[in-house]
């Protein structure tokens, strides 16, 4: 039951027969929940999306309505009907409660099996009366946007103040003068009208906060009610200037007090008049342990004067000397609406934390303020200028409230039970003119760190107290008000503000009745009523709308996906027409050539068609209105001469590819529907009818999962036993050849299917400045006959093309062939001859598919939904690999083919996978693809490779520079590069292969022994000229280290380091490169290389160090090059290079970095070197290690105190220094040097400069903590964005 805060954690459980009707279900729920049947809705509760109403037809049984029988749990939610809370059933209608409990308890009956309720909920000693429906309380709640409970409480108080509400109604909005969206009075007026006339249980406040200039982030800011009250009153006064309401706030809420000082010697008094909107009352005086017990005591303390004596004496103008004096406040005038603010939030100077004071402080129902006013002073002339209340700055309580409607704390605060005993009439006594009647109390539950506000407000129309807790409004008693005094040890809510109205005043008015509304308010009421009705109608439509995924194989745009939203009462014929328009098929396919069928998009399975059900409502066909469906719909199309075939439930779909061994082609699929209980023999006859092949010589191969080819040879075995599922793919071949006599895995059919399953289509962009001429790389479409030396050399030169999975174009002419220009023909012939062994009739065991060894790194497989292991390449074909997508187009009547959403998703998934390898080093003990002479070892293991010119349709690249390559993805990068040599025009060692990703980022592929298994169809590859990495080589990025520059890390060049090379050799190769590319002419003895970890300089590499032996090197390695002013001093690994910097407190400046070379890790040696370098006497020298990453930036305002100066250690490699490697930063100073004296202005100026400097370098500014966001209301529609602000 989610209709109230009290019941949201409870659960009702009903066990019903599946034949129970929905109407009976509603009756049973109404009886168990204690509600009147028909005043609530039931909705599905176990769906992640927006809940949908359960009802389709009251006469339907539970089993027909989508409920799952057999002991399964069906989760429902009991919700409001049309935005109104359920009506409570009369308690007398139920049994099981004695008279006393019936008198005390109003609302839903106690429920068995409740869960999640705190003890305070069920405790009769402290609980609110059950949340009453709006129709009974007559009041509307406010929805909490996130943490806007403070706003809701204040708005409800203002709404329940008749003088404020009526004045707001009398103000008329002029739309010609102001935008209604930004007008605060107009949006408050709308909100108050809705609070008075709406039928909803709660309404939103987003329009009001938008008029404040707030965005959605403000809803997550916690503020204090009193702070909001003042800011909002200021904003209203600004908006109401030059109107009748210009002085409304002052008339209702403003009082006056006198701030005075009186000389105790001569009696002279100096004073001024201040105004106030609220009176801030201290709960516990500073330094005291005892709090004031009542509001009266706190008011007395507020006006209690203090004596100024001793050093605090007052200079008397009359006595012309310092005298003892008395200083205090006196009230001169009280406002009509008196606001008292309790300062419950304080600061504990012992713990240095903000605290909340929960001390008990009572307040009377009627407060006589006459003892606190100075009658004589009220008549005194106001000779001094009146200023805003001095208490203004004291009264704000900034607290981080956390609004959590259903927290345990809130449950306690809201759980007040209704006291049935009628309150005894009070004895009437003469009332003072200064008597105030309490009518609103703001309650804060929680702590100083966060909490929740709600309001207890008395209605002036009936004298009843109500709790306004966000969207929940309930009746409460005077006893419940007294429980907010405070004083108990629990975490209950205690009042922080109180509003009282003068009892005797000419201002007293009643609430304006609806009939008495001004004309402009009546028109506003009508406008809001129409808007609410429209909203209600829209909700009703939503509640009865089926939303389901719709797919369509568009003849022009390929596979389209959309969402079909159709009313449950619309017929299938009407829904088909809607889908027809949604998919934009008008003018492309006639409407009578379209139909909707049940479709499983994941398996690409057509579950069933709906013959003869054109007039059936969609609600019945889809099984009701649900938030999500376990199936989709497909808008199927056909050509006018075709006929739709019926799809019956229980059938499986089979896509049949006919294989021609002679031409080595695999045809596009033919769609066949079969039954799982059919035998293989019956299935072959079914295929024979569809394809015209002979069933006697037919071989049927099922591709169950990726590369899992299974020959179906047992005649009486059923399709179910063979592993057929909803959607399947088979290859059939029927010929008189002897190929069927050999073992299947040795047959030509298996080789052809294996090749087909592993071939991908790549787009290769050739380099522009290729050494080979364009003529040498031109491809021609000329039939080239081969000799008989290779039995299957026509693989690439005759009709040997076949369909490729996920290929968007199927335009390859099976009779076209590929050849190269005369210059490259000989090499091409050699490649073709080598290729012959992989797929032709030759069964030479030497040339059989040898499985190439691969690294153990996981690669992404383009034909599966996730990564698969490299052992899929074994000839045994693992049966547990992931399921494969279907290959080739399916020739159904609608042209639905396998290039569907799922296939394209798989392709896109691979685009996000990036290669980060940047070394040609082997990974798992496998050999390099090149032997010592640079020859490929893979020539004998040649896998399928075919290239053709790129058409303009294939790529956005220049077609003249682009190749379309069909290649077996099990080929290694080395073999792939060798096959590209004729087209690039240089040897494979002279060009690099870059893989292009979706965002056009390029990453070099350099691992020669890796296969292309991570590539998928239509991946792009760029070829660039340049030396490729050899075995044991690493590509390295070289950066220059500039320790005293603002940006200490500057990129220089990319270079190559090799395993076994010394640091000096690498420097010798690097220096000419730097001279040519960076114009740096350096001496080898004046440069050093050192480790780079992000921007931190590390170990200095010595000339005799060897890569991979002394220095570990990896892919994408980065190294610092540092230019020295003198020959290298680092000669041994035992030495330590430290970067030092002098701090001068007298000038507030840091000196430049200077390097110190230490022979050991001795602190004494460091101090001696620093003393020698700086001239600071050894006994005065102090040092500290820098914090964070290089260059260890720190504010000059912090460095003198915040660093750990002169640590008591003797060596550098222990705590707290831990200086064990080169590159550590050490600051040092002269301990006798006094810090510069700064004025406040100089300090602020320096703070700004340091803040700006450190923000630019990305370092933390620790002296500027994040402040709480001030509450602001923007009168110009929103905050001005200051570009200089962070």
UniProtKB/TrEMBL annotation:
Residues 82-102, 373-401, 779-818, 834-934 are annotated as: Disordered. Residues 918-931 have a biased composition (Acidic residues). GO terms for molecular function: cysteine-type deubiquitinase activity. InterPro entries: Papain-like_cys_pep_sf, Peptidase_C19, Peptidase_C19_UCH, Ubiquitin-like_dom, Ubiquitin-like_domsf, USP, USP47_C, USP_CS. Residues 781-799, 834-843, 864-880 have a biased composition (Low complexity). SUPFAM superfamilies: Cysteine proteinases, Ubiquitin-like. Gene3D superfamilies: Cysteine proteinases (3.90.70.10). One of its GO terms (biological process) is protein deubiquitination. Pfam families: Ubiquitin_2, Ubiquitin_USP47_N, UCH, USP47_C. GO terms for cellular component: cytosol; nucleus. Residues 845-861 have a biased composition (Basic and acidic residues). Residues 87-99, 382-401, 807-818 have a biased composition (Polar residues). Residues 140-498 form the USP domain. It comes from the Eukaryota. PANTHER family: UBIQUITIN CARBOXYL-TERMINAL HYDROLASE (PTHR24006), UBIQUITIN CARBOXYL-TERMINAL HYDROLASE 47 (PTHR24006:SF902). This is Ubiquitin carboxyl-terminal hydrolase 47. The gene is USP47.
């Amino acid at each position: 039951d989610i209709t109230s805060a009290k019941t949201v954690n409870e659960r009702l459980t009903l066990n019903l027969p599946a034949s129970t009707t929905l109407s009976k279900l509603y009756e049973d729920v109404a009886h168990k929940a204690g509600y009147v049947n028909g005043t609530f809705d039931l909705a599905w509760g176990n769906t992640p999306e927006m809940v949908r109403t359960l009802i389709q037809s009251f006469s339907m049984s539970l089993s027909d309505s989508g409920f799952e029988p057999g002991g399964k749990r069906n989760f429902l939610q009991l919700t409001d009907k049309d935005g109104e809370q359920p009506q409570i059933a009369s308690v007398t209608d139920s049994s099981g409660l004695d008279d006393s409990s019936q008198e005390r308890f109003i609302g839903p009956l106690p429920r068995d099996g409740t869960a999640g309720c705190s003890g305070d909920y069920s405790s009769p000693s402290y609980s609110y009366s059950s949340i009453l429906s709006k129709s009974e309380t007559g009041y509307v709640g406010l929805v909490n946007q996130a943490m806007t409970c403070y706003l809701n409480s204040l708005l409800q108080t203002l709404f329940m103040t008749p003088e404020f509400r009526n004045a707001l109604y009398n103000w008329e909005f002029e739309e010609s003068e102001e935008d209604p969206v930004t007008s605060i009075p107009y949006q408050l007026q709308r909100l108050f009208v809705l609070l008075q006339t709406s039928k909803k249980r709660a309404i939103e406040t987003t329009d009001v906060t938008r008029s404040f200039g707030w965005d959605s982030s403000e809803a997550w800011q916690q503020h204090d009610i009193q702070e909001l009250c003042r800011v909002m009153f200021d904003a209203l006064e600004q908006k109401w200037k030059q109107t009748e309401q210009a002085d409304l706030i002052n008339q209702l809420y403003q009082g006056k007090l006198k701030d005075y000082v009186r000389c105790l010697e001569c009696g002279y008094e100096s004073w001024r008049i201040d105004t106030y909107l609220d009176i801030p009352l201290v709960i516990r005086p500073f330094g005291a342990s005892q709090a004031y017990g009542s509001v009266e005591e706190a008011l007395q303390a507020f006006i209690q004067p203090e004596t100024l004596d001793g050093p605090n004496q007052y200079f008397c103008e009359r006595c012309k000397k310092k005298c003892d004096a008395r200083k205090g406040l006196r009230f001169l005038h009280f406002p009509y609406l008196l606001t008292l603010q309790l300062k419950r939030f304080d600061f504990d100077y012992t713990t240095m934390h903000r605290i909340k004071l929960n001390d008990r402080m009572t307040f009377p129902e009627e407060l006589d303020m006459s003892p606190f006013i100075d009658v004589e002073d009220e008549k005194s002339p106001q000779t001094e200028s009146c200023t805003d209340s001095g208490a203004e700055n004291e009264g704000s309580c900034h607290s981080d409230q956390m609004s959590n409607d259903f927290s345990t704390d809130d449950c306690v605060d809201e759980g007040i039970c209704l006291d049935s005993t009628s309150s005894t009439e009070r004895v009437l006594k003469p009332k003072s003119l200064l008597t105030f009647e309490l009518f609103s109390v703001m309650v804060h539950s929680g702590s100083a760190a966060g909490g929740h506000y709600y309001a207890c407000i008395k209605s002036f129309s009936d004298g009843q107290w109500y709790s306004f807790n966000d969207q929940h409004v309930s009746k409460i008693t005077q006893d419940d008000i007294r429980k907010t005094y405070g004083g108990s040890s629990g975490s209950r809510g205690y009042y922080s503000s109180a509003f009282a109205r003068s009892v005797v005043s000419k201002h007293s008015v009643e609430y304006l009745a609806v009939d008495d509304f001004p004309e402009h308010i009546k028109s506003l009421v009508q406008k809001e009523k129409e808007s609410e009705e429209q909203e209600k109608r829209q909700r009703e439509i939503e509640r009865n709308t089926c939303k389901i995924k719709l797919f369509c194989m568009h003849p022009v745009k390929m596979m389209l996906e959309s969402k079909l939203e159709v009313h449950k009462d619309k017929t299938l014929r009407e829904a088909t027409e809607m889908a027809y328009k949604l998919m934009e098929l008008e003018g492309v396919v006639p409407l009578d050539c379209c139909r909707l069928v049940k479709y499983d998009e994941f398996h690409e399975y057509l579950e069933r068609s709906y013959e003869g059900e054109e007039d059936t409502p969609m609600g019945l066909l889809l099984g009701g209105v649900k938030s999500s469906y376990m199936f989709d719909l497909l808008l199927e199309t056909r050509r006018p001469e075709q006929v739709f075939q019926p799809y019956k439930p229980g059938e499986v779909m089979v896509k049949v590819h006919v294989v021609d061994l002679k031409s080595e082609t695999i045809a596009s699929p033919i769609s066949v529907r079969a039954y799982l209980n059919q035998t293989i023999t019956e299935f072959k006859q079914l295929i024979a009818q569809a394809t015209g092949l002979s069933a006697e010589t037919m071989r049927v191969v099922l591709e169950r999962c990726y590369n899992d080819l299974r020959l179906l040879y047992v005649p009486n075995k059923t399709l179910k036993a063979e592993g057929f599922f909803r959607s399947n793919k088979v290859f059939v071949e029927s010929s008189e050849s002897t190929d069927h006599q050999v073992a299947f895995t040795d047959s030509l059919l298996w080789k052809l299917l294996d090749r087909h399953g592993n071939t991908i289509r790549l787009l290769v962009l050739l380099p522009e400045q290729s050494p080979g001429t364009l003529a040498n790389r031109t491809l021609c479409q000329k039939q080239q006959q081969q000799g008989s030396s290779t039995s299957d050399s026509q693989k690439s030169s005759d009709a040997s093309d076949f369909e490729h999975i996920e290929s968007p174009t199927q335009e390859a002419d099976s009779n076209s062939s590929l050849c190269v220009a005369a210059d490259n023909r000989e090499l091409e012939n050699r490649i073709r001859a080598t290729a012959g062994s992989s797929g032709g009739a030759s069964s030479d065991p030497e040339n059989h598919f040898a499985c190439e060894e691969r690294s153990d790194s996981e690669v992404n497989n383009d034909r599966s939904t996730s990564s698969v292991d490299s052992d899929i390449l074994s000839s045994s074909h693992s049966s547990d690999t992931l399921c494969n997508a279907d290959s080739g187009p399916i020739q159904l009547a609608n042209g639905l083919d396998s290039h569907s959403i799922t296939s394209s998703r798989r392709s896109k998934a691979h685009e996000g996978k990036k290669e980060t390898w940047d070394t040609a080093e082997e990974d798992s003990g496998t050999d390099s693809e090149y032997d010592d002479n640079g020859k490929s070892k893979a020539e004998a293991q040649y896998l399928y490779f075919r290239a053709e010119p790129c058409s303009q349709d294939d790529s956005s690249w220049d077609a003249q520079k682009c190749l379309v390559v069909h290649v077996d993805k099990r080929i290694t990068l080395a073999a792939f590069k060798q096959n590209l040599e004729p087209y690039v025009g240089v040897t494979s060692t002279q060009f690099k292969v870059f893989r292009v990703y979706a965002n056009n980022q390029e990453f070099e592929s350099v691992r020669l022994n890796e296969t292309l298994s991570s590539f998928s169809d239509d991946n792009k590859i760029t070829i660039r000229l340049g030396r490729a990495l050899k075995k044991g080589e690493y590509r390295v990025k070289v950066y220059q280290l500039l320790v005293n520059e603002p940006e200490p890390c500057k990129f220089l060049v990319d270079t190559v380091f090799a395993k076994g090379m010394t640091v000096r050799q690498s420097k010798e190769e690097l220096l000419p490169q730097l001279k040519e590319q960076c114009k740096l002419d350096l001496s080898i003895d004046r440069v050093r290389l050192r480790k780079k970890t992000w921007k931190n300089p590390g170990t200095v590499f010595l000339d005799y160090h060897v890569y991979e032996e002394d220095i570990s090197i990896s892919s994408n390695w980065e190294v610092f090059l540092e230019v020295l002013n003198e020959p290298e001093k680092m000669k041994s690994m035992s030495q330590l290079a430290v970067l030092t910097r002098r701090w001068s407190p007298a000038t507030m400046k840091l000196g430049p970095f200077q390097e110190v070379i230490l022979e050991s890790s001795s602190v004494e040696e460091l101090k001696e070197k620093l003393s020698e370098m700086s001239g600071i006497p050894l006994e005065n020298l102090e040092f500290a290690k820098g914090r964070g990453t290089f260059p260890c930036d720190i504010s000059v305002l912090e460095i003198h105190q915040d660093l750990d100066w002169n640590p008591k250690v003797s060596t550098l490699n222990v705590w707290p220094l831990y200086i064990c490697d080169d590159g550590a930063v050490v600051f040092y100073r002269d301990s006798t040097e006094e810090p510069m004296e700064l004025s406040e202005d100089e300090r602020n100026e320096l703070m700004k400069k340091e803040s700006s400097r450190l923000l630019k370098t990305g370092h933390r500014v620790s002296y500027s903590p994040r402040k709480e966001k001030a509450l602001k209301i923007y009168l110009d529609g929103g905050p001005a964005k200051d570009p200089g602000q962070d």
